[in-house]
């Protein structure tokens, strides 16, 4: 890849918007891809990025479909949609022509900056150069055009590596750009080991979405049981994952939640999906990943099955987040 890289953020919600906003602020070229009212706000008023230290309005180019972006050989595609939307996004971008010849799927690197562990495998069917990104980036997207990123002094930690393993010059260059933009960005030859660790922590997303909290006593106990099932399943499957101590040691004091002026209390991505009335939730690829692996390897996963089923029902019925107490969850 020649020249300075341009970042095409496919799905400029909480994670994608925070990454794109910080990269743009640091002087990198970015295009945000979004839909509907969010796209209209980005197009007309720019991205409003709220952090503990500043409230920024960033005039970042925006697009609402692949056809609105003329792809170049120095582009990096950053996939930041929820996993339930991954296949549609891959299908719409893989065949897009790139200036100088070839298609996006043949020529351009695709970074999966997403929760869960199936996106990279889905991408590899359509893209030759696939990278995993383990996303530790608390951020909120509750109103069109507005992203809140409450961590400081660094906005997040983003491990990046080739899928299924290894590193290369693209990963190192992307990491170097991210580290100019308020991110810790380790280049990891074993990036999926970090993503499986993140999967374990994301099992609590459904608990928070359903009960409104993952830290109150009843909810915390439910989240701990879901994680214990996840650990048992990964061990039975022979899948390695980074320890909580490794993760905490890297983050250190560099990522601390701080109040954001005018911001809402921090909530996870599944809670946000219910709050926005998105109509879908990623539980099938978080709790459901543990359920599937448990069935493959003979490990019972009743708590994750219950959370997956209930979270999907909440999304389907348009239920508000936090509308069922942990004690009532059956």
Radius of gyration, taken over Cα atoms and rounded to an integer in Å: 19 Å
Q: What's the architecture of the largest domain, going by CATH? A: 3-Layer(aba) Sandwich
Instruction: Outline the biggest β-sheet.
Output: 8 strands, mixed
What's the domain count?
2
Please trace the helix and strand order, writing H or E for each element.
EHEHEEEEHHEHEEEEEHEHHHHEHHH
Structural category: alpha/beta
Low-confidence stretches: none
How confident is the prediction overall: mean pLDDT?
96
Count of DSSP-assigned helices: 13
Protein name: 2-dehydropantoate 2-reductase
Organism: Streptomyces harbinensis
Domain Ketopantoate reductase N-terminal: 8-147
Domain Ketopantoate reductase C-terminal: 190-310
Summarize this structure briefly.
This protein is α/β, with parallel strands linked by helices and 330 residues long.
